[in-house]
Amino acid sequence: MKRLRKLFSTTAVRLTVIYSLLFGITALGLVFYVTYGTVNLLKQQLVVSINDELRELAKIYEENGINGAISALELRSRAPGANLYIVANPAGRILAGNVFDLESGVLNQTGWTFHPFRYTRFGTSHNGEYRALARVIEMPNGMRLLVGRDIGEPEKFRKVIFNALALALGSMVVLGLLAWFFVGRRTLLRIDLVAKSTDRIMSGDRDERLPVSGSGDEFDRLSTRLNTMLDRINLLDEGLKQVSDNIAHDLKTPLTRIRNMVEASLVAKTTRAGHRKALENVLEESENLIKTFN
After folding, report:
1. Averaged pLDDT, groups of 10, the chain, 294 residues long
2. Domains of the chain
3. How far, in Å, CA of 182 to CA of 179, rounded?
4. Where are the alpha helices (DSSP H) in the chain?
5. Which DSSP string corresponds to 76-96?
6. pTM of the model
7. How would you classify the pairing of strands 99-102 and 117-121?
8. 18, 86, 159, 223: which could form a disulfide with 146 (CB 3.0–4.6 Å)?
9. 89, 105 Cβ separation under 8 angstroms
10. Cα-trace Rg, the chain
């Protein structure tokens, strides 16, 4: 858990998480947009197809009457991939078409069925129910004509598109998480190496330098600049040490002479004038020492 918190504390990992979330949200929106946009397009085509077919059947009814319309309907219903066709009496009883049974109430109202309804085709098990959208019109003699289209194929297509996009999204999320993990882990390793090197430098190892992997990335550029700075600091320290040694050497001789003068004055049994002469010599040496720094 501590390792995970440390991983999340790095800027690279936080940026990766933010970008992954933004990408995931965008990709998810794209999945829904493409899926439902495709389904809506198929439904629009379905509406256009049904309206065209109803106009053709209405024209046949005007020209050839109910018998001609039923004959055209029966002919079309036997075609592969045919639409749904029903001719029913005013009470809703099916007289002709390619539908064995359908959900109650569908034929009671004219117009589009706003919600998909269940139906059973001829030649299939009565337990094998399908779903469809349709439009119902009332003919001049009071009979009802239904033309519809099974929505199984659009639904299957929607599921295929949705599953494919969801799989692609899931794969991208997994790859993003793996990239995030390895990028974060690599970042932590580089930071740990830099931290260990700085600890050794702070403990007094002036020859230690920050690691450079040779990849030329931002860590390498930063480490190279810091190493150059440390080299210049070492040079300045060497110069300072040399200056200090020179100053110590320049101070050692006059300070030794002053010390010897003081010791000689203390040991010797001289008069007051002799002590004064010794102090004057010390003062002269001190003045010479001060001139060294001026």
Report:
1. 60 70 78 77 83 85 82 81 83 82 84 83 63 86 86 75 78 76 74 84 84 81 88 87 81 79 74 75 78 69
2. 2-162 (3.30.450), 218-293 (no CATH)
3. 5
4. 2-8, 11-77, 152-202, 218-267, 272-293
5. HHTSTT--EEEEE-TT--EEE
6. 0.48
7. antiparallel
8. 86
9. no
10. 49
